Amino acid sequence: MSSELANRLSAETSPYLLQHADNPVHWQPWNEASLALARQEDRPILLSIGYSACHWCHVMAHESFEDAEVAEVMNRLFVNIKVDREERPDLDQIYQTAHQMLTQRSGGWPLTMFLAPDGTPFFGGTYFPKEPRYGLPGFADLCERVTEAFRNRRGDIETQNAELRRALASTVPTGAAATTAFDARPLAAAAESLARSFDRRHGGFGTAPKFPHPTDLAFLLRRPDPDLRQMALTTLRRMSEGGIYDQIGGGFSRYSVDERWEIPHFEKMLYDNGPLVWLCADAWAQTGDPLYARVTEETVTWVMREMQSAEGGYYSSLDADSEGEEGKYYVWDRSEVEALLTPQESALALRRWGFDGPPNFENRHWHARIAGDLGDAEIPVLAVARQKLFAAREQRIRPGRDDKILTSWNALMIEGMAHAARVFGRGEWLVSAQRAMDFVRRTLWQDKRLLATAKDGRAHLDAYLDDHAFLLAALLELMQAEFRRDDLDFAVELADTLLTRFEDREAGGFFFTADDHEVLIHRPKSGHDNATPAGNGIAAFAMQRLGHLLGEPRYLTAAEKTLRLFWPQISQAPSGFGSLLRALEEALTPPDIIILRGPDGEMAEWRRRLGADPRRMVLGLPNGIAGLPAVLAKPESDHVNAWVCRGVTCLEATADLKSLFN
After folding, report:
1. Is the pTM here over 0.85, yes or no?
2. Of 35, 104, 145, 269, which residue has the fewest beta carbons closer than 10 angstroms?
3. What is the total count of domains within the chain?
4. Residue 365, SS3?
5. For residue 381, what are the domain limits?
6. Is the domain of 575 the same as that of 646?
7. Radius of gyration of the chain (CA)
8. What is the pLDDT of residues 285-311, one digit of tens each?
9. Over 84-117, what HEC string results?
10. Does residue 180 lie within any of the structural domains?
């Protein structure tokens, strides 16, 4: 390796990259200079992708990347590039897919890929130990063997690379015939598939590890069949009672390592908690169960307390580890609980949270989950106990916080927060969501271009499909909570950007990267939900809704073309396409659009009575708002009037609130 190379991560904004800035490895950021160096010196690239809250990323870093001998091997053999998968989801998506194609196994983080100088991967894996174990080779030895193969089997590698590129290209769908008619069969098939994998005892789907899958839960909550809705409600209840939910401080962890939702992987991600706030609010609206109200409020409180910056944007995640141990911040010793609480409080807390049984974390600590019933008289006692345990926990060394602000994840939290504010009538929650949206518009929307990430006043990286689509959906939810003209203008700008810079005008659908994005080995266009919803599904849903709201055929056509593109996939195997199925539902049965106009004070009661039904849109436009689009510029009045469009049929204006429930 060229002697002038050094570790160049210190100038980056990503907390994950900065964690590696002092490694003896000569890490480079992903940029043209790093890629050009690999081409110039004909050296393979060692690409390491992870994120700051990733436990096994930390393990591999401590074992190998902080080790001088391993670093010497890496520096001698490769151009070493470190990527934060949260800042560069385009790279993560491409190389995770390539890993699965090369190894026939699912990927994960850390992702360790060895690339030819042109960026095409020829070998890869996830975590590799420093010394051989777990059936895996030692990392330094692996690096030597990979380099030897690159030098001595170059022809075979180039042949494989060409095949891989063709395989990646084949993942982009070609779409259905223009004459294909949509129908509801994928909705029924998806519900049947979820029912088959549903865990009727513990909730959730499949076995351990268990992930929340909020798009699937949202799909089930919208079903008219009460048995299907109950699957979602049972899952949300079991999660809310389990250890995946932080019973002391609020908020959900990323997943459960067991089928009971008892012990989580302790990292808390913003992208999970936004949709789960939405779901718990809707679960309460459907059932009135106080459990869902409590969990919604505690999670929102956690977000506003620990995850919202002074400037308004929401931070990304909390680490699973503190003091080098996973879960140390969150788990308890029974003696500690007994010392902190009165005998009455202690007896109740131990029974309620399962501390009176055997330790459930590493056979020596307790992690709280709901294990015992609670009488009405015990509720205030437990609340005091919880406050004391929370105050004591606050004195511990906290897990690291990834304080970069991601546009897409902020959008998911804004949407969830605004929806919960509508359901519960909580103005302070709405203010939190609006502050975050204002931060995005002020900091990440520059010269009519959206940026993906910001930290310490520096915003950079071109935004992706998910950023635009999720933000558009969040704006539609915000406008229903409280109409602001700037939000509507921003929504139109985002929708137009999706059409001009992301849409595939010939085949339909939206590419993950914009038309002027850095050229990579592949330009993805996926409709499948992952840990976050599919950008194509959310784009189709939001464009469709905005099209109905404004009477804009361009948006409706783009949504229809997206559904048509993915129709062969969702009609043949609809599992995992919850976001696109939501758009399909509204393509088959457009939402009710209700426009309210009149005095602001009186309108608040109309909005409260109409609630936050996800199957309709309600926009309250108080008197005095100027410059509205013609379709929204209804006559002002000294009392509230409502204009209702159901599908393609619009009714006469009415001043009778009760008539809207007929």
Report:
1. yes
2. 104
3. 4
4. strand
5. 330-395
6. no
7. 26
8. 999 999 999 999 999 999 999 999 999
9. ECCCCHHHHHHHHHHHHHHHCCCCCCCEEEEECC
10. no
